[in-house]
Amino acid sequence: MIELSASLLLRAYAAGIFPMAENADSEELYWFDPERRGVLPLEGFHVPRKLRKTVRRGPFDLRFDTAFRAVIEACAEPTADRPKTWINGDILRLYTELHERGCAHSVECWSGGQLVGGLYGVALGGAFFGESMFSRVTDASKVALVHLVARLRAAGYTLLDAQFVTEHLSQFGAVEIPRSEYRRRLAAALAVPTDFGGVDQEAAVTALFGAEV
């Protein structure tokens, strides 16, 4: 039996494969390599007008990588729209280790000293693999996503993997591409040097809005 480890997880992502559990109590992880992959185009990312105004108003204190474990635990909480989660104990352990190694990041929305929304994902070269997001107040996860895209663009990333296209992600321009095209883009992205932390976030958001048509 192959031992699950953070290193194995990184090799899987580099090959275009990602894990999910059936539910929070499951002791097994299943590997996915969809025939059609969801991606969010960094150069064609669309921010709805109302959301753009919200981002500019700045209702949240935006932070990166200050509460990774809390973000992934919040993503694992059941909601009315998502009564079951695919995040089990192994997912929590492995992705926390990836974060400690600098390979997984969180985007966090805070309000009144409380974590109210955010997302997390894995970074390899110029590829970022979005894993999950959560929102405890209106628009918090959407604001986090906008700030993530702004940062990825500024840091030189070329691929934002969304795994599957949902109605929620479609409003931002998410599209499906064939597995062969995804693997081509992934191979190119893995060779790109990036610096997730070395970004002026305010300038990055301004550049994103200025580039949007």
Features:
213 residues; alpha+beta; Aminopeptidase; 9 strands
Task: Describe what is shown at a glance.
InterPro entries: Acyl_CoA_acyltransferase, Leu/Phe-tRNA_Trfase, Leu/Phe-tRNA_Trfase_C, Leu/Phe-tRNA_Trfase_N. The chain is of the alpha+beta class and 213 residues long. Helices cover 38% and strands 25% of the residues.
Folded structure, characterized:
By secondary structure, this protein is an alpha+beta fold. The protein has a single domain, classed as Aminopeptidase (3-Layer(aba) Sandwich). 38% of the residues lie in helices and 25% in strands. It has a seven-stranded mixed β-sheet, with helices on both faces. The chain has a two-stranded antiparallel sheet with strand order 1-2. Helix 5 links the parallel strand 7 and strand 8 (159-163). Helix 1 packs across helix 4 and helix 5 (140-155) crosses helix 8 (201-211). The longest helix has 16 residues, at 140-155. It is globular. It starts with 5 loop residues before the first helix and ends with a helix.
